[in-house]
Amino acid sequence: MSHEISVVVAYHSRFGHTARQAEAVARGAAEVPGSTAHLIAVDEITEQDWALLDAADAVVFGSPTYLGDVSAGFRTFVELTSGRWAEQAWRNKLAAGFVNSGAMSGDKLNALQSLSIFAAQHGMTWVSLGLLPGWNRSTASDQDLNRLGFWLGAAAQSNGDQGADQMHPSDLATAEHLGRRVAEQAQRITAGDALLSAAV
Ligand SMILES: Cc1cc2nc3c(=O)[nH]c(=O)nc-3n(C[C@H](O)[C@H](O)[C@H](O)COP(=O)(O)O)c2cc1C
Description:
Layout: E1 5-11, H1 17-30, E2 35-41, H2 47-55, E3 58-66, E4 69-70, H3 72-80, H4 82-87, E5 94-101, H5 108-121, E6 125-126, E7 154-157, H6 169-199
Helix pairs in contact: 1-6
The structure holds flavin mononucleotide.
Flavin mononucleotide binds at residues 13-19, 64-68, 100-103, 106-107, 158, 160.
């Protein structure tokens, strides 16, 4: 039996690449029965978006990597959450993350770690990518899921001279996988909570 759960994908993107990755995360989350996915561009956040975040079962954070960390646009959003941080208003919600950069590494792991620390500061429960690395055998291909070999979240590499429509299919499929996994984990927790409250 599926439960009604809400997954919010809260991202920043200046040139559209991380926005396309965010759409893939939302698509994956929405594939899970009973799950609704919402996209929030954090540099244009509205009161309605804050209400969606407060009501969410899970929030997936996404940022491009600028100078080795999350973008200033994402960081501004992080600091705007400090009132909610003080109240631990998002405690126990699920959280996950995705990052994008121009280089294969590009130090985007550092940006992803920033997202996970942000979630931990809010008392949220981090969901990992849950995939083995792809593209690490002589017989493997760059089309493998998780071609960039991350564990903490989903990664993408975007060529600086190409638009978001040219993003690598593996990175988009990996982002979809993360969305699906987060929604499935939210379903499991909601089902467990429903069983517990039925038992008392
Ligand atoms: C100010 C700035 C800093 C950047 N720093 C990095 C970096 O540290 N590592 C990297 O690999 N790419 C870096 N890039 C490239 C972006 O991460 C890459 O173009 C990304 O896909 C942009 O995402 P967006 O289209 O969602 O804004 C930088 C780009 C900008 C504009």
